[in-house]
Amino acid sequence: MAYKINDACISCGACEPECPVNAISAGDDKYVIDADTCIDCGACAGVCPVDAPQPE
Ligand code: SF4
Ligand code: SF4
């Protein structure tokens, strides 16, 4: 299991510093989560203003 950022992402960057394992980085048109690094904690979803990170 890992979280995935959907197309609702507005690239605000709020989630990136909240991730305890640094799984989030800026992508071309939205932020992205490295599924192999994500520990499914949900911290990113908690700070996202548009609910873009969703559990897969
Ligand atoms: S669910 Fe947790 S570990 Fe996974 S990307 Fe979000 S903040 Fe990082
Ligand atoms: S907090 Fe939400 S909108 Fe902001 S960069 Fe992260 S996923 Fe995208």
Describe this structure in words.
The chain has 56 residues and is mainly beta. It has one domain: Alpha-Beta Plaits. Helices cover 9% and strands 21% of the residues. It contains 1 helix and 4 strands; from the N terminus they run βββαβ. The chain has a two-stranded antiparallel sheet. Strands 2-3 form a two-stranded antiparallel sheet. Strand 2 and strand 3 (31-33) form a beta hairpin. The relative contact order is 0.40. The chain binds iron/sulfur cluster (2 copies). The site of one iron/sulfur cluster has 15 residues, from loops. Keywords: 4Fe-4S, Electron transport, Iron, Iron-sulfur, Metal-binding, Repeat, Transport. Ferredoxins are iron-sulfur proteins that transfer electrons in a wide variety of metabolic reactions. This is Ferredoxin. GO terms for molecular function: 4 iron, 4 sulfur cluster binding; electron transfer activity; metal ion binding. InterPro entries: 4Fe4S_Fe-S-bd, 4Fe4S_Fe_S_CS, 7Fe_ferredoxin, PSI_iron-sulfur_center.
Task: Write a brief caption for the model.
Helices cover 9% and strands 21% of the residues. It has 56 residues and is mostly beta strands. The strands form two sheets. It has a two-stranded antiparallel ribbon with strand order 1-4.
